[in-house]
Design a protein that fits this description.
Oligomer: single chain
Low-confidence stretches: none
Order of helices and strands: HHHH
Largest sheet: none
Distance between the termini: 25 Å
Shape: globular
Number of helices: 4
Radius of gyration: 18 Å
Number of strands: 0
């Protein structure tokens, strides 16, 4: 049995993925800039979205800015992804997160093994999926894709 790939659909999926990645990093840098300004930190590092080595402490403003910007970015992107991919937010959220992990490992030249970073990333992903899927359901409930469970 040969694998059949419909090229126009594949192009649409890849284009949507590219748009989602660009939206993700645009929102990330905007939120990061706002958080840096709000916390009155002196220097905004261009590699901040990929920094998993900052000392995790509730009194460390650098860590708080990174954590807050990550969580806010994931929540906002979950809502924005609905406008791009409609009810497939969960799929694109997981894929964009996987791409972010790969880019982070490449930029930092090391695979992130910090538990606090993985917990923040996981909670952000849950925020993105839940917020996006709820908004998608509210916006597209008339033509939402429901699985057929009659054959189970």
């Amino acid at each position: 049995m040969a694998l059949k790939i419909n090229l126009p659909e594949t192009k649409i999926v890849l284009l949507n993925l590219l748009i989602c990645v660009v939206v993700f990093y645009t929102v990330y840098y905007v939120v990061l800039s706002i958080c840096f300004t709000a916390f009155r930190l002196e220097m905004l590092d261009g590699l901040a979205p990929f920094d998993f080595k900052t000392n995790p402490s509730w009194i460390n403003p650098d860590y708080l800015v990174l954590l807050m910007s990550l969580e806010i970015t994931y929540f906002i992107c979950g809502l924005l992804f609905v406008l791009i991919v409609e009810e497939w937010v969960w799929d694109y959220a997981i894929t964009v997160t996987a791409i972010h992990i790969i880019i982070t490992a490449a930029v930092m030249s090391e695979f992130p093994l910090m538990l606090h970073w993985w917990m923040a990333l996981g909670s952000g992903l849950i925020l993105m999926i839940c917020g996006g899927q709820v908004l998608a359901y509210c916006l597209f409930k008339d033509n939402f894709i429901y699985p057929v469970l009659d054959d189970f």
